[in-house]
Amino acid sequence: MTENKEIVDDLKQRRDELRVQMHLASMEARQEWEALEARWDEFVAKARLRKTSEDVEESLRMLGDELAQGYERVKAALAAK
Q1: Which pLDDT tens digit goes with each residue over 18-76?
Q2: How far is Cα 3 from Cα 34, in angstroms, rounded to an integer?
Q3: Can you give the pLDDT at residue 1?
Q4: Is the pTM of this model over 0.85?
Q5: Taking a C-beta distance cutoff of 8 angstroms, is the pair 37, 16 a contact?
Q6: Nearest to 39, CA basis, from 75, 67, 13
Q7: What is the DSSP letter of 2?
Q8: How far apart are CA 29 and CA 71, in angstroms?
Q9: Containing domain of residue 50, as a range?
Q10: What is the residue-wise DSSP string for 11-75?
């Protein structure tokens, strides 16, 4: 499995788990979720390009890291309730 596929699969799993719990979220967590959903769409679009240029690869890694951190913040907010 390629590194990009592993990243996409990991983020998709985190996203799916959190989406189930969003009805319990605070307004702040919901707002962050909405922003993350927009970034997710961008991430998926870039992942589908599968270009080999270093710029695209680095951009994809950075966006993936941003999504992972955002999902962790939402998860922590849900756990704090």
Answers
A1: 988 888 888 888 899 999 999 999 888 887 776 556 667 788 889 999 999 999 999 99
A2: 26
A3: 52
A4: no
A5: no
A6: 67
A7: -
A8: 10
A9: 3-80
A10: HHHHHHHHHHHGGG--HHHHHHHHHHHHHHHHHHHHHHH----HHHHHHHHHHHHHHHHHHHHHH
Euclidean distance between CA atoms 11 and 3, whole angstroms: 12
Task: Measure the CA–CA gap between 72 and 66, rounded to whole angstroms.
Answer: 10
| Residues 6 or more apart whose Cβ sits within 8 Å of residue 70 | 32, 35, 36, 39
Backbone torsions φ then ψ of 80, nearest 5 degrees: -75, -15
Q: Which amino acid is at 66?
A: E
Q: How many whole angstroms separate alpha carbon 41 and alpha carbon 43? A: 5
Q: What total of structural domains would you count in the chain?
A: 1
* Calpha distance 52→41 (Å, rounded): 20
